[in-house]
Amino acid sequence: MINIPKGTKDVLPSESYKWQYAEERLRKVAKLYNAREIRTPTFEHTELFVRSIGDETDVVSKEMYTFEDKGGRSITLRPEGTASVARSYVENSLEAMSLPLKTYYIISAFRYERPQAGRLREFHQFGAEIYGATSPYLDYDCILFAYDALGALGLDNVKLRLNSIGCGECRRKYVEALRGYFAEHLGEMCPTCRERYGRNALRLLDCKTPSCREIAKNAPVILDYLCDDCRAHHEKLCGLLDKSGVPYEVDPGIVRGLDYYTRTVFEFVTDELGAQGTVLGGGRYDNLVASIGGKPTGCVGFAMGMERALMLMEKRGTDFGDTGIDAFVISQSPEHTEACMRIVAELRRAGVSADTETTGRSMKAQFKYADKQRAKFVVVVGADEFASGKMKIKRLSDGTEKECAAAELAARIKESI
Ligand code: ATP
Ligand code: MG
């Protein structure tokens, strides 16, 4: 037997309705926010991710699925959606459309990680990206979008953590202060932090090692280093959130793992998923478009981890509204198979989901199968029914029966659903 690759999952026919339920709701929220779907390829030139996400990040330095294709190009399976959307924005001159432009996507993404609950090698994201968004009102709109997306899945207990990591200017000063602070503790820190110290000191705040976390707790806080513009932006956003009633907490420890973020960064977190507590992450990335050859463009976006969202929904006992078919037509004898298939074809054309027996099983076996398909109604059809032109519709949940003319079958089933 050939097994599924490590860190990937099948979504089986018996559970796909959960995904469909979530996806449908998310698409509805996107529509409410005036966001249009964008679809980009599953793979891109490796260079795109290196340039945009940054080669010092975990995603680029350790987690990418990169290979050379037969034409000798370096190709990478997308580890996230933001960079691809930015590439498409630049390549298709989407700035020529009226801005702000709001996009969303539901995609699979690929990262070579150690698989565990809520951490896969192929996972899925619902994401949104807003282009032409320099004002804090769009950070606010984006956070409300994320909040309502979670709300649409019933996840109103996920907490919003917010921070500003400023612009390049504020960060230069801040990183200097951070280096000064960590220099004294470097001996007690993990090898990764020691290595990152010189190249990307900001990431030392992101380390998950408990002893490093303890040290990071007392590090200087970026909010104290923001320039006037970045501070005003952050304060405006906080003011808007205060008035909106969306609960949040300013958390200076949130720096986000990717290089392209500027100013606003945020996460929606839960303590119900162990170490994989970040259900949704996002922020502003004003330098990304320029870094891949476009004009400087204010952008803000987020991505929700679908697996984590679904895990939480399951924990909360969400009713995913799984329904079976409307009707199963039980054939009293194999000689009626063709006639039953014609009945079913008519039902389907009338918008009633239906099926019938095609393998010649006994009526008992058919009832069992109808039950497994969670049919709402069964219609038993045989010589008597064809002779009289009358059919009985039986509701499986309570056994009640209704008789009707064969020609009215679809209409009667529809009105009883
Ligand atoms: P983490 O800190 O958990 O590794 P991240 O910062 O790498 O997350 P992002 O790049 O911000 O994650 O991606 C947005 C969301 O996608 C995350 O909040 C998470 O819900 C989800 N996600 C990221 N990586 C994975 C993965 N390997 N498996 C499942 N979901 C993931
Ligand atoms: Mg990660």
Give the structure's gist in a few sentences:
It is built from 15 helices and 16 strands. It is an alpha+beta fold.
Characterise this structure.
It is a single chain. With 417 residues, the protein is α+β, with helices and mostly antiparallel strands. It has 2 domains: 13-167 and 227-315, BirA Bifunctional Protein, domain 2 (2-Layer Sandwich), CATH 3.30.930.10; 327-416, Rossmann fold. 38% of the residues lie in helices and 21% in strands. It has helices spanning 16-32, 46-53, 58-62, 82-91, 136-152, 168-183, 191-199, 210-216, 228-244, 288-291, 306-315, 337-349, 363-372, 383-388, 409-416; strands at 36-37, 43-45, 65-68, 74-77, 101-110, 122-131, 159-164, 248-250, 262-269, 278-284, 299-305, 327-331, 354-356, 377-381, 390-395, 401-405. The strands form 3 sheets. An 8-stranded mixed β-sheet has the order 1-5-6-11-10-9-7-8. A 5-stranded mixed β-sheet has the order 13-12-14-15-16, with helices on both faces. Strands 2-4-3 form a 3-stranded antiparallel β-sheet. Strand 12 (327-331), helix 12 and strand 13 form a beta-alpha-beta unit. The mean pLDDT is 95. The structure holds adenosine-5'-triphosphate and magnesium ion (MG).
